[in-house]
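INFO batch 0412 | record 1 of 1 | parsing
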Amino acid sequence: MAVDYRNQTTLITGASSGLGALFARRLAARGSNLVLVARRTDRLESLAAELSGVQVTTIGMDLAQPGAGGKLAAAVAEQGIEVTSLINNAGFGTHTRFHEADPQRITDEITLNVTSLTEISRAFIEGLRAHGGGVLVNVASIAAYQPGPTLAVYAATKAYVLSFTEALWSESRGTGLRVMALSPGPTNTEFFDVAGQNADGGMARMSADRVVDQAIRALDRRNPPPSLITGLPNRIAIGAQRLAGRRLTLAILGAMMRQTDRR
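INFO prediction complete | emitting tokens
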């Protein structure tokens, strides 16, 4: 049964493009008011202008900066907005060997993918639990399920997101809050403009629409799963890697990334 998001307000980070923008469109169509957060305020304003029938608030903020989670919570509170659903979508990856990565970029990646996501979750979860009818979605990745040669920091941050979110799923049972970690495989978004086009390891990319539609359908269930891997091929691949063991999996993943880097 489709969940009714009327009389809800959903905060979406990384809402200026990709999965974040699509979540905004889908939830607005379900009647949710929105708080859209990203660095690129021009894109947020453009997105807000196309969404009708709901109240849309835009907040321009770089969540990769220290303390961004608290600043975002304060900005929302200043406007008197009660957030009842949260989608932590903001994040980025770095495709390079770790010893060649820029140290500041590593710090920014961990801050955005882990620290800010955790701070934002903590800032709003009490309100989400009290409301009892919303969702908390943290966007992880299939990279969360195994180490990622040439994506070492990204995979590690997403492993944190997966573990953290599944724990919140357990803690939130019985409150009415639906918590889920969303783990897409390679997806046609601007992620690869930042991480590098070869960061997909040669795997086929899903459309962003399919990823979001599968997530929405999962959240419509009476008891959504603690985590969702989108796309049957991705679920099969992760299952096979678990059976193969760590040493063999790392050998295969390392070979895949070296092969794509030679293109």
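INFO post-check: The chain has a mean pLDDT of 88.
INFO record closed
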